[in-house]
Amino acid sequence: MRLSRLPLKRRAVDPRRKVNVRQLPAVTVALAAAASIAAAGTMAIFGVVLSRIAASSYNFTGDFLSFYAAGYLVRTGEGVHLYDPGVVDAAQRLLYPGGFDETVGYPLPVFAAWLFAPLSYLPFTGAFFVYATMTAALLAGLLYLLAGQLADVPRGPRLLFLTCAALALPSLATIVFGQVDLIALAGLVGG
Fold first, then answer.
1. 4-31 pLDDT, tens per residue?
2. pLDDT-derived band of residue 59, with 50, 70 and 90 as boundaries?
3. Residue range 113-161, pLDDT digits in tens
4. What's the rounded Cα separation, in Å, for the pair 116 and 125?
5. DSSP state of 11
6. Alpha-carbon distance 69 to 28, whole Å?
7. What is the three-class DSSP state of 49?
8. CA distance 11 to 184
9. Is residue 31 part of a domain?
10. Domain for residue 4, yes or no?
11. Could you give the CA distance from residue 1 to residue 10 in angstroms, rounded to a whole number?
């Protein structure tokens, strides 16, 4: 008999049902505890990295510096030099108060640099935190949309999944290093 013809009993799941921890298997509780410890460690690392960026520490620039400098170049009428390594290096060293070993080249099309032009009016640290806040808000919005798609999943596993997605290394790295991945994802989701 094929599996598709087997009668399956489906139990109606109420997504508003509260989960009683005492009724969960020990493995589930242990995994949740391990996930909580991992989340706390991840958030601690996240905090250290953000504090290093706020202090303009040496070599703590991430991808955001290339986007920020590109915004500065197009805003000041130097967009023609957006892909000139010497000009990009000079702009990044001018704009970043800390030091760094290597320039991060600008990898995006010219139109994307215009999105960063308004941020270039702010000092680097302020611009970074504005951008990080916007990116975190975008992540929250995407997770909200995902939660709507997972409405049939019981509350406990759904919240655990969403928390893991929010605290996953790629999610946090996108925020900490000032990457544009969540903007691209939002474009795919919305378009």
1. 554 545 555 565 667 676 777 787 778 7
2. low
3. 999 999 999 999 899 989 999 999 999 999 999 999 999 998 888 888 8
4. 14
5. -
6. 47
7. helix
8. 38
9. yes
10. no
11. 20
**Residue 9 domain-assigned?**
no
Q: CB under 8 Å, gap of 24 or more: what pairs does 20-28 form?
A: none
The count of residues in the chain is 191
Running DSSP on this structure, what letter comes out for residue 19?
A: P
| 12 lies in some domain | no
Domain of 107 in residue numbering reads as: 25-190
Q: What is the DSSP letter of 178?
A: T
End-to-end CA distance of the chain: 43
Return all residues near 17 (Cβ < 8 A) that are at least 6 apart. Answer: 154, 155
E-state strands within 82-183: none
Name the amino acid, one letter, at 12.
A
- Burial class (CB within 10 angstroms; exposed 0-12, middle 13-18, buried 19+) of 75: middle
As for how many domains the chain has, the answer is 1
- Token pair 């303009």 is found at 56
